[in-house]
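User: Second chain of the day. Same drill as before.
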Amino acid sequence: MHRPLADEIRPKTLDEVVGQRHLIAKGAVLRRLIESGTSANMVFYGPSGTGKTTVANIIAKSTSKTLYRLNATTASLQDVKDIIADMDTLMAPGGILLYLDEIQYFNKKQQQSLLEFMENGKLTLIASTTENPYFYVYNALLSRSTVFEFKPVSAEDMCPAVERGLMIQKERSSLPLEWESGVPMQIAQACGGDVRKAINAVELLCQAAQPCDGKLVLTSEDASQLAQRSAMRYDRDGDSHYDILSALQKSIRGSDPDAAVHYLGRLLEAGDLLSPCRRLLVIAAEDVGLAYPQAIVITKACVDAAVQLGLPEARLPLAEAAVLLATAPKSNSAHDAINAAMTDLKKGKTGDIPRQLQNVHADTTGFDNRQNYLYPHAYPNHWVEQQYLPDALKGVCYYEYGDNKTEQAARTYWERIKGK
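Assistant: Same format as last time:
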């Protein structure tokens, strides 16, 4: 039976693991725990293909416990009960090490079924997840575990693994196998930090190679086609989606147009049009705000054009909006003002609406309760002093003028009108 290259090349020791130097380099905490033969419960968090399963296998080989594997996407509560039933039997005389992949798919009851045995040490859990464990793993289980974050593997770290895979394929091949000089790095760069994806790309590239002059030659063009779009780590409902949107907003807030179009491009390349449209409108109001009030008008026009055009042309008006917002002056004064007002509301600070601001229908009730509203347009400069906030909030200041030209001009104007 054919053995997949990704399985054949899987590291057997920590020194062979690609990347994750912050966890398994000499002297790193996880490596010291593994080498000490620890039975600590762990949660491995990170993208696919970054070595979580590989490191779990290495830990399993260094312990006397019986290894069981479950994938939470297909496992049931009965599977957990069957494993627990093997405790203290000849099937697992030294205890059980359970490797639970994709733990985020286990519900609360399934996760809770493990707690008692984790507590008494009969079961050691190594769980892996591609989603933030603090959102998807229940607190009781997290409190008994240590979380280790696995990061995407850099192209430089991955390239030796790709070259090793190519050499294995060369030994397997019935014809002489060669590749253009840039192919290994091209594959490593195109696979978004996913070692498994890179090794699978190597295997597919070799399978698709056509004989020429009695040998097989792997070309950069073929490598590009096999690896296209594979560098995109994106899940519309997952962490990656929100990470990219967050990076887009923070790049624009930080006035970096280059980073802004990069993250916008990642969203659009993944086929997501609506999310960047919504986020750009938020940025126009939250981060540019009153420093350039026309920004939201222009952004709305760009968003409308993008929706009408659809992809791929939608990238043009959205890029225009992203660059405009990144290079515009910034103010979050309106954002801070509404947040401060709503904070008081949540604390119950409201009070009755001043009589002069109430609807005029109250003047027809027959009571001597006239409104006495002062109509600003009837006064010089369209302003007259009167109380607008409820008595309970009289004198409260929510809005502070920003230090940009537009808001400072407004401040100067109103201070002159109000005689302050």
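The radius of gyration is 31 Å.

User: Great, on to the next one.
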